[in-house]
Amino acid sequence: MKCFETPIAGLLLFEPTVYPDDRGYFFEAFRDDFLKKQGIHSAFVQDNQSRSSQGVLRGLHYQTGEFAQSKLIRVLRGEILDVAVDLRENSPFFGMSYSVVLSEDNHRQLYIPKGFAHGFLTLSPTADILYKCDTYYHKKAEAGIRYNDPELKIDWGFAASQLILSEKDTMLPLLGNHYPSEIHFIP
């Protein structure tokens, strides 16, 4: 497996070594010892899986306080544009976003540490996403930022009329409307 640094410190992209043959392919999708060599000591406790149709945008979500989550995102089927936004209070990258295409073909995974908001847009007809979390989901700690916050300048690559969002996601606040009083991450 290879590790690539992104322009935002702590946010890492992984690409496995894939062994194809006439039967299909094989690769190691997760190795705790590999993550530890990258400085990641997250003990993942929960796997989440979702399926979305083309144009579905989920996010930008995060959990606050002691329930903040690190995530390891990968796509089992289809293709997504995966986006992480740095919300770490003292980070020189605060408010900066990083986008990457994750797909069943490139097998890439994005590691998102605590202190980031996360969202994705489904690019293929359907996509199945699997992500590991190092803290259990806690409803009272969930929070988010609106996907089209002008301060974030995220290029989703789709017109707003093509996006399918939950009502909850359309009503999320802008970053400037709740930072720093509502963003409480454990360093």
Describe this structure in words.
It is a single chain. This protein is mostly beta strands. The protein has 2 helices and 13 strands, in the order ββββαβββββββββα. A 6-stranded antiparallel sheet has the order 1-2-10-7-12-5, with no helix packed on it. Strands 9-8-11-6-13 form a 5-stranded antiparallel sheet, with no helix packed on it. It starts with a strand and ends in a 17-residue tail after the last helix. The mean pLDDT is 92.
Number of strands: 13
The level 1 CATH classification is Mainly Beta
- The unreliable regions are none
Radius of gyration: 16 Å
Overall average pLDDT: 92
Q: Which fold name corresponds to the CATH topology?
A: Jelly Rolls
Q: Name the helix and strand elements from N-terminus to C-terminus, one letter apiece.
A: EEEEHEEEEEEEEEH
Proportion of residues in extended strands: 35-45%
Can you tell me the CATH architecture? Sandwich
Compute the number of structural domains. Answer: 1
Alpha-beta content class: mainly beta
SS element count, helices: 2
Task: Label this structure with key terms.
single chain; 187 residues; mainly beta; Jelly Rolls; six-stranded antiparallel β-sheet; five-stranded antiparallel β-sheet; 2 helices; 13 strands; globular
